[in-house]
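Issue 218. Parser rejects a valid record. Input:
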Amino acid sequence: MTSVKSRAHLGALVGCALLAGVINGLLGAGGGIILVFALTLFCKGALPDRRDLYATALVVTLSLTVVSTLLYIKGGNAPPADLSRFVLPAIAGGVAGGLLLGKISSKALGRLFAVLLIVSGAIMILR
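Output the parser choked on:
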């Protein structure tokens, strides 16, 4: 994966990964945001291109999302009718995003990520 500057940074990164799993499991989202923040903070220089950082966070988020999803389904918290409406469009969006990743500058992606966080946070606070 990436090189981490010290054992303390590695410990903090592992702690952030644990927190990402808990948040994603509780809220169904947010784990990736924590991972992007943690990788930015503790792997500075090891992932010089933000696209690598986002891809790394996405791969980790995929695994914790699969586990959370299985637990949601087992607990009856993910109705199949709702899943069928959203899964295919979300997969199509994921394919589009993956294809666009290499075409958008790292700086533009960073700005897009920041705007997404600000807008989504504002909407959640105001509702």
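Fixed in the parser; the record now loads. The radius of gyration is 16 Å.
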